[in-house]
From TrEMBL:
Keywords: Methyltransferase, Transferase. It comes from the Bacteria. The keyword Transferase applies. Its EC number is 2.1.1.182. It is an enzyme of class 2 (transferase). It comes from Halosquirtibacter laminarini. This is 16S rRNA (Adenine(1518)-N(6)/adenine(1519)-N(6))-dimethyltransferase RsmA.
Length: 260
């Protein structure tokens, strides 16, 4: 098989610039101590740099049957390590009890879902270096005060340090996407758990941002009917004015109010 045909329904845009591929792989910090899951390897442009002494435990995750055949032909050393299935449905705990690094030129149509999957498995995923749409990368890495700061910004930054590494143009892909791309790195921080109920934290963050034009006092009524009983100026703010620590503090207040 000479090459793999890019499939629109899988969000495939194959990277063709080897220098960028090398930069992505060089950006991974956790190497010898972790298993590396490469999401959507396609024709192996990143895979070729992940094979070696620096990355002794590489496992490609590929849903495209054509790509799996290609990888087995060109990287036979990985034949018994390829997970030919959907990354979003992967059972991380059944796969391994070791630390995991997630790397890849992520399929654009599921890039946000990939990060939610990482969040679900944050007890194992110590790092991720991924290439995604530039606008999604900017949103993830944005700080409070920014108009693009949102749900994924808060949830990821509660458990990971996020870094915008570099921007990638459209002309280094086949087929070229209609948007610019960017590579970001997220590294697990020291927060093993939150000082509030985590499920409630998620609900608070989502409720507030899903009605981001409203004051927080009004948005939170779907989570806590008597939210007006809270005595805090945070209820007068807009969602983008709230830092991660503010969201945690507010969730602690809501949790106490619900418990009354």
């Amino acid at each position: 098989m000479s090459q793999v045909r890019a499939k629109k329904n899988l969000g495939q845009h194959f990277l063709t610039d080897l220098n960028i591929a090398r930069r992505i792989v060089d950006s991974v910090q956790h190497r010898e101590v972790s298993k590396v899951l490469e999401v959507g390897p396609g024709m192996g442009v990143l895979t070729q740099y992940l094979i070696g002494d620096d990355f002794p435990k590489v496992y490609p995750v590929e849903i495209d049957v054509e790509s799996v055949v290609y990888l087995k032909e060109h990287y036979p050393i990985l034949s018994d390590r390829i997970y030919d299935g959907d990354f979003l449905k992967m059972d991380f705990k059944a796969f391994s009890n070791e630390p995991i690094v997630v790397v890849g030129n992520f399929p654009y149509n599921i890039s946000t879902q990939i990060y939610f999957k990482i969040l679900e498995n944050r007890d194992q995923v110590v790092e991720s270096v991924g290439m995604i749409q530039k606008e999604v990368a900017e949103r993830i890495c944005s700080s409070h005060g920014s108009k693009i700061y949102g749900i994924l910004s808060v949830l990821l930054q509660a458990f990971y340090d996020v870094e915008y590494l570099f921007t990638v143009g459209e002309n280094v892909f086949n087929p070229p996407p209609k948007v610019k791309s960017a590579v970001i790195r997220i590294t697990r921080n020291s927060n093993e758990s939150l000082p509030c109920d985590e499920a409630l934290f998620y609900r608070v963050v989502k409720a507030i941002f899903n009605q981001r034009r409203k004051a927080i006092r009004n948005s939170l009524k779907s989570v806590c009917a008597n939210v007006s009983d809270l005595d805090t100026e945070m209820l007068q703010r807009r969602p983008e004015q709230m830092s991660v620590s503010d969201f945690i503090e507010l969730t602690c207040m809501v949790e106490k109010l619900i418990a009354k």
